[in-house]
Amino acid sequence: MGENYPDILTVKELAAYLKMKPVTIYKLSKQGKIPAFRVASSWRYKKELIDKWLAEESNKNLNKKKETP
Question: pTM of this prediction?
Answer without folding.
Answer: 0.81
